[in-house]
Amino acid sequence: MESRGTKREAGEIEVAEPGNKLPRPAPSLPTDPALYSGPFPYYRRPSELGCFSLDAQRQYHGDARALRYYSPPPTNGQSPNFDLRDGYPDRYQPRDEEVQERLDHLLRWLLAHRGQLEGHKLLKWWAQSFLPGVPNVVAGFRNPEGFVCSLKTFRTMEMFEYVRNDRDSWNPSVCMNFCAAFLSFAQNTVVEDDPRLVYLFSWEPGGPVTVSEHRDAPHAFLPPWYVEAVTQDLPSPPKD
What we know:
Blueprint lengths: L6 E3 L2 E2 L14 E2 L23 E2 L5 E2 L20 E2 L20 H9 L7 H11 L5 E7 L4 E9 L16 H18 L7 E7 L5 E7 L8 H8 L9
Antiparallel strand pairs: 1-2, 3-10, 4-5, 6-8, 7-8, 9-10
Cofactor: Mg(2+)
EC number: 3.6.1.-
Organism: Capra hircus
């Protein structure tokens, strides 16, 4: 028997083949609600750091010029009678879906303010309102003709009371415990600092959260101007 690594012919050496290694399984996060039914995790209510506006042409402005205030109608008066179709034919300006804005507007604000930075529908409303600290949600109920005929205000912290007794409903503790687990999972998974590398988290009903790695287009979303602006302020790596 010919031993590995021995010379077989002049100028020809047999190199030992590495042993076959099983492929490392991709990390995943289970999504079974029963795994996240513990006590509600600690959550600090967020505070507003700033704002920016987009005008009718979707141009960025680093101020609150587009901010509008909601003035509720009298609660003891007639129905609000809002026509949801009003303004669509003559004033509505559809967004150009060919323009991939991604996070560009938010990134512009971050660059300008880096010094400052150190039922199922109820579930959606709660998730969208609880995390940013919105205390109330005003829901409009429309008729088949598209007119809002009544309004109701839901306190974000009390939304769960409407579905508490529903057997198959959602639970805020499960939602936040899973959120905390996912953020921890993402923190332990995203380990390489590379603007061209994208960690894509995916989920299909009934399965776990999975993650895959992709480079450059079409998944990369950080524009070059942002990467260049940020890296200019980073300290040089230490020399060996």
